[in-house]
Amino acid sequence: MPKAVYFLMLPNVLLLDVSGPAEVLRLTGQFQLHYVSPVPQISCSIGMTIGQLTPLPQRWNEGDILVIPGVADSTHYFASEEAALARNWLQALRPALAQRQIDLVCVCSGALLAAQAGLLDGYHCTTHHAVIERLRQQAPAAQVKENRIFVEDRGVFTSAGITAGIDLALHLVNQHCGADRALEIAREMVVYFRRSGDDPQLSPWLRYRNHLHPAVHRAQDVMAAEPEAEWSVPQVAEKAHVSSRHLARLFRLHIGLSVREYHEQLRLAVAQQRLQQGYGLEKAALTAGFSSGRQLRRAQQRWQA
C-alpha cells in the first residue's frame, strides 16, 4: 500500500522545495502525494497560482510523512495568517511525532515553521545557511547542525537549501524502497547524492555516485550489475569504452578509490545484505564473490581500519 506524504502548502512556497522531492517520490510509485493547506489556493515563489489544495488533515496513519517546504521571504510569510493557522495545527502533532507515528521532513526554511511549533525541540536538525542563526534562536532546545546537506534524527529529517530537498527525498527512497531504486531515480533525474562528513551513511551503490563522468558511471553500472563476477580492470575499461590506465585515473579523480577497491565495496555490501538475511558467513561470502568467509573478514577489516 502506498505511503501517504502530505506537503504543507503556504503562500510564497518555494516551488522547487515541493516539486523536487515530490518528483523523486512520485517516480517510485510507492508514495501517495497530497498537497494540504489552511486555504484552498496559494501563489508560490515564482508567481504561479496553485489551487485545489485539500484541508489540513486531522487524522494520521502509522508511517505517514509530513513535508514542510520553505517559503521565499520567510520572515514575512511565516508571520502570515495562513502560517499562524498552520503553526497551530503543527503544534498538535508533537505527540504523534514523539511516538514515531509520523515522520517529519523539513526542506530549507521549512524548519523555521517546525521550530516555531516546537517540533524540533530535542532533535538534531539543519536548514538553509542563510537562516541557520534564526533556527538556533527559534529552536533553542534543538541541536542545530551547520554545513550539512541533511540531518536525520528519530524520524525528523531536515535539509539545507532548496535542491538539498532532492537529496533528502532520495535518502527517503533509499530507506523505503532500497538503494537500487534510489540510484535509478537519481540517474533518471540526472542528480547524485552530495555528502558531508556526518551525513547518514549510504550503500556503495549510492555513496560514490556524486559525479557526472559517463565513463565512470558506465564502469560502476557494469560492476554493480554483477558484483560477484571476477571483473578485471581491462574488462571493466572495455565496457566503459576507455583504456585501463585512463579508467584508473578517472576512478581516483572522481570517487577517490581504485577500480578494485570500488568492486570490493560492492561485494561487501552484498555480503552484508546476505548476512542480514540470515545467511551463514561462508554462504554470504561466496554469493558476494569472495572465495571464503576468511577473505570476507579480511576485506571487512581493511575498510574498518
From TrEMBL:
Domain HTH araC/xylS-type: 217-305
InterPro entries: Class_I_gatase-like, DJ-1/PfpI, Homeodomain-like_sf, HTH_AraC, INH-QAR
SUPFAM superfamilies: Class I glutamine amidotransferase-like, Homeodomain-like
Keyword Transcription: yes
Stored Gene3D superfamilies: 3.40.50.880, Homeodomain-like (1.10.10.60)
One term of GO molecular function: DNA-binding transcription factor activity
Transmembrane segments: none
Keyword Membrane: no
One Pfam family hit: HTH_18
Keywords in alphabetical order: Transcription, Transcription regulation
PANTHER family named among the record's database cross-references: ARAC-FAMILY TRANSCRIPTIONAL REGULATOR (PTHR43130), HTH-TYPE TRANSCRIPTIONAL REGULATOR RV1931C (PTHR43130:SF3)
Name of the featured protein: DJ-1/PfpI family protein
